[in-house]
């Protein structure tokens, strides 16, 4: 009904905590949600671990876990297989998120396994309240659209900064890494086209990919280039028919031990954004 536009109602999350604190979600199976599975919004001190989240690969918008304008969140030791992003961090949508101004911060994601036609670890694209101080590590992904996807858009405002992602294994994926400033739609036509997001301090280390069709894409914004993008020890191996290249624009960063050889914007090491001492 949603696909045919005959659904007269919005689809609910399977479980949502709002304006709450000191939450533990543990040892539960979540299955066949109509929309996002677990959605803590405006929450603090949240632990989600040892959960299993299942949805058909063709089910729309069935994100696994979406911390939204929340802080002090730990997501760990879980298996997620859905039709959308496995874990997606959000903080508000365009002018509404900018006005509310509540960031997502201090979030740790570790030891997550899963598959999806979309992203394994996603940040955005709703980032208007700001997203900072994120750590994702020891992630194992298979049959993915994208391994790591950081995404925002014109009109979002806000920021994405101090992101550290390490020890990621990706097998069978369309993209290993995508960082983009032109993804996600708008809630209405009243967003401010001059509200450009700031993306800086993205550190990605020790990523190993097998049968990855496209190594990576980093597309910043002309009026707000992405800065401090650091890649270290990233190896994304493709198949015979893959495009083992990087596509970059409006980005400033450095790289060390990256294969295939990254785009020219990331080929210099040292300088203001040294990758070697990031982790």
3D structure, described in words:
It holds the Pfam family Glyco_hydro_28. InterPro entries: GH28_Enzymes, Glyco_hydro_28, PbH1, Pectin_lyas_fold, Pectin_lyase_fold/virulence. With 279 residues, the chain is mainly beta. It has a single domain (15-266), classed as Pectate Lyase C-like, CATH 2.160.20.10. The chain contains 1 helix and 15 strands, in the order ββββββββαβββββββ. The strands form 2 sheets. Strands 2, 3, 5, 6, 7, 8, 9, 10, 11, 12, 13, 14 and 15 form a 13-stranded parallel beta sheet that branches. A two-stranded parallel ribbon has the order 1-4. Strand 8, helix 1 (94-100) and strand 9 (104-123) form a beta-alpha-beta unit. It is globular. It starts with 14 loop residues before the first strand and ends in a 20-residue tail after the last strand. The mean pLDDT is 94.
Descriptive terms for the model:
13-stranded parallel beta sheet; glycosidase; two-stranded parallel sheet; GH28_Enzymes; 1 helix; 279 residues; PbH1; mainly beta; hydrolase; globular; 15 strands; Pectate Lyase C-like
Topology:
Elements: E1 15-18, E2 21-26, E3 29-31, E4 38-41, E5 44-49, E6 52-54, E7 71-81, E8 87-89, H1 94-100, E9 104-123, E10 131-151, E11 159-180, E12 198-219, E13 226-236, E14 243-249, E15 251-259
Parallel strand pairs: 1-4, 2-5, 3-6, 5-7, 6-7, 7-9, 8-9, 9-10, 10-11, 11-12, 12-13, 12-14, 13-15
Describe the structure concisely.
The chain has one helix at 94-100; strands at residues 15-18, 21-26, 29-31, 38-41, 44-49, 52-54, 71-81, 87-89, 104-123, 131-151, 159-180, 198-219, 226-236, 243-249, 251-259.
């Amino acid at each position: 009904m949603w696909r045919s536009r005959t659904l007269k109602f919005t689809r609910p999350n399977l479980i949502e905590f709002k304006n709450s604190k000191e939450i533990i979600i543990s040892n539960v199976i979540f299955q066949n949600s109509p929309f996002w599975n677990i959605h803590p919004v405006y929450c603090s001190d949240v632990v989600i671990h040892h959960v299993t989240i299942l949805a058909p690969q063709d089910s729309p918008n069935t994100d696994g876990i979406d911390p939204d304008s929340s802080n002090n969140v730990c997501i760990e030791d879980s298996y997620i297989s859905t039709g959308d992003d496995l874990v997606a961090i959000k903080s508000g949508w365009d002018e509404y998120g900018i006005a509310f101004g509540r960031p997502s911060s201090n979030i740790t994601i570790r030891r997550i396994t899963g598959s999806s036609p979309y992203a394994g670890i996603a940040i955005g694209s709703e980032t208007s309240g700001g997203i900072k101080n994120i750590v994702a590590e020891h992630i194992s992904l298979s049959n993915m659209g994208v391994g790591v996807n950081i995404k925002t858009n014109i009109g979002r405002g806000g920021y994405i900064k101090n992101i550290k992602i390490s020890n990621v294994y990706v097998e069978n994926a369309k993209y290993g890494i995508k960082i983009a400033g032109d993804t996600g739609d708008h809630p209405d036509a009243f967003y401010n086209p001059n509200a450009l997001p700031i993306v800086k301090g993205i550190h990605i280390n020790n990523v190993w990919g097998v049968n990855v069709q496209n190594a990576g894409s980093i597309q910043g914004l002309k009026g707000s280039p992405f800065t401090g993008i650091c890649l270290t020890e990233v190896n994304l191996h493709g198949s015979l028919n893959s495009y083992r290249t990087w596509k970059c624009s409006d980005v400033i960063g450095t790289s060390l031990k990256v294969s295939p050889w990254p785009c020219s914007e990331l080929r210099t090491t040292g300088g203001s954004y040294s990758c070697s001492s990031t982790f």
